[in-house]
Amino acid sequence: MTATTASSSSSCSLQGSSRIGSRTNIHSDLLNPKSISFSSNLKGLSLKSSASKRQLYSRGKGSVVIAQSMDRVEVDSSLSPRVNSVKPSKTVAITDQATALVQAGVPVIRLAAGEPDFDTPAPIAEAGKNAIREGHTRYTPNAGTMELRSAICHKLKEENGLSYTPDQILVSNGAKQSIVQAVLAVCSPGDEVLIPAPYWVSYPEMARMADATPVILPTSISEDFLVDPKLLESKLTEKSRLLILCSPSNPTGSVYPRKLLEEIAEIVARHPRLLVISDEIYEHIIYAPATHTSFASLPGMWDRTLTVNGFSKAFAMTGWRLGYIAGPKHFVSACNKIQSQFTSGASSISQKAAVAALGLGYAGGEAVAIMVKAFRERRDFLVMSFGEIDGVKISEPRGAFYLFIDLSSYYGVEVDGFGTVNDSESLCRYFLDKAQVALVPGDAFGDDTCIRISYAASLSTLQAAVERIKKALVTLKPPVPV
Ligand SMILES: Cc1ncc(COP(=O)(O)O)c(C=O)c1O
């Protein structure tokens, strides 16, 4: 047998954390593909040595491992502690699980993904096609094309009352990249990152990746999941470096009113080390009378704020991978430097499409207004439908396309052939199993009493989902009145 090893381009998925940090015998693992699976083609990656013994250096342990023979090559499969400190995204895991079930023929209704169900508006898609035809297919400047950054400056001025110059804008491969780079750029090991919960799944993990400590600020459904400024103030220490705000919020749909943001800004102003990442990616998906306020527009906050936005949600451009950050040049340049060694500039084609998106008019013009109208109808339908069910607590979302409902009064029930439903995770497994509806457990967002329903699905799909969920809830014990 030819001994093989995986190249850097191959990917390896580990099943079970016990493997992490241990050495793996490729011979036995190829015979037992359940324990470790390599998705790349291993053929042709043969070890060249003709010697029967081979030295492999074991990273992390500092020891030298001697492979006994050509067909028993031991590979050190230990991973960086960074990997162990980061949790995988539950939204991605559940979406993948639901997709696998659908592919296996199970009629699962998927309401787990954070992705608009609409196509990218035609003028944007057309601009992308033209970009290819016209040869805009090369690297762009790392920070993004001047054309796009100028258009972003114009948008921020017109829609958000924020003045930036193009060198204060960095375009990235999605807002996710913008955020993680900002966290990496400003946090030192041991710094604290304040995150109101429920939070977008990635914020705490991004803090951990920067060797910073997430400090979670719980909120309550009765307060519309908005952070209490007094709680924020009480959690501030000399290590506090970042506060991450998300409005409209994923997962709750809450929108921070201007007055509350002003109170938060007063607290931030008193702590010179504290910066704010204001994630405004759902800015346009907002339901009047709610209005959006950019945190950087508040008195004294321009210097303190890194404003993140992107094209994925409002313009239904998730696959185009385009987001951006705007802020003081010092911080944006630092993010730019990190990006220059991570990925370089974002896709030239997507950047051309993004210019077209910003050209659709104020807040995305008619194309975005049509989608927001549909989201609003769906929100109204879900709020009404779940409002009729005993034991369900709701805070009406004012933006984004998620409903975050408290179903904890259904916990503690033993279900025949299933087990106990005692937390958001088991409840979501129960819904997937018994109702074939995929939802995301609230514990992924830091609130185990709730589950998240994404209403980026047609009204008829939502109607079918509600029917199934209602039936599944009836099978649970009668809920305790709240
Ligand atoms: C709150 C929030 N911020 C940022 C992102 C990242 O968006 P993208 O990387 O697609 O631009 C998401 C996507 O789900 C999100 O929900």
From TrEMBL:
InterPro entries listed in its UniProt record: Aminotransferase_I/II_large (IPR004839), AspAT/PAT-like (IPR050596), NHTrfase_class1_PyrdxlP-BS (IPR004838), PyrdxlP-dep_Trfase (IPR015424), PyrdxlP-dep_Trfase_major (IPR015421), PyrdxlP-dep_Trfase_small (IPR015422)
Skewed-composition ranges (Low complexity): 7-20
Pfam families: Aminotran_1_2 (PF00155)
UniProt entry keywords in alphabetical sequence: Aminotransferase, Pyridoxal phosphate, Transferase
Cofactor: pyridoxal 5'-phosphate
Region of interest called Disordered, as start-end residue ranges on this chain: 1-20
One Gene Ontology biological process: aromatic amino acid family biosynthetic process, prephenate pathway
Family, per entry: Belongs to the class-I pyridoxal-phosphate-dependent aminotransferase family.
Protein name: Bifunctional aspartate aminotransferase and glutamate/aspartate-prephenate aminotransferase
